[in-house]
Predict the structure.
Amino acid sequence: MTLIVLILLGFVLLAGVVLGGFLYAPDDAQESENEIETVAKPVSNELPAGIKECLTCMYGEHVPVVRTAVYNGTGRLKYRFLQVPFRFRTWSIPGKNFYREFELLWYGLPIVRGTESYLNKTGTIRMKGLKKVLSMGPKTDVSQLILMWTESLLMPSVWNENRQIGWSANGKAGRVQMVLPVRESREKASIRFDARTGLASEFSALRPGLDGPRLPWVVTVRRWSKRNGQMLPDLDISWGNTGETWLTCSVNDLSLNVASGKMKKVAVENA
């Protein structure tokens, strides 16, 4: 009987050690950046009312022109019954290209490393470690295009600058619809605004899954807060028909108009 109790205690302790690794709070991936001078432009009169109000609430009468951006953050990814911590860093030319490195962690150590990108109108997802993934092709192109435009929640100034976006009424109060060009087709996404603050509160679209049909992709801003001089969001993300939160993350730092070695990965000529 004593042996059985000891064995059970051993299993409990082992499970505690294994699961405890996923409770470890991740640190940001950091890299020094060199800033480039930022200029500003007035809010365009061609934009929908909700977009103009959002830009004015975020920036005032003049909106910064964002040529490049680097941001990092941390979060948790739901995998079965686990909440797996992760960290990420993204290099972006808003509305054109992005490249992201991410790590899934156990006791702060990477157990899965990956990259995802949308470069020269081509989407790619790669993962290696305990889980291996390589996703490319037309479906991934569209999926990563939608992911790239999701980051406009962080940098809504791109709405003021990018003339390729089409805008139309959503039919619901407090929402506008974006029409995004991708190869020969056009993709649609919806942006919702907080009636109290005027800031963006949700980005949604039908995003292709890795191995299946398009599924509702809903990114909800749980909270806006000022960090390092920037208004940055905490996000809840669902990707599926149930609406259940699949991923939570916080953007902890955002640098605009910066130059770094890895920015060369996204500074490619668009076809």
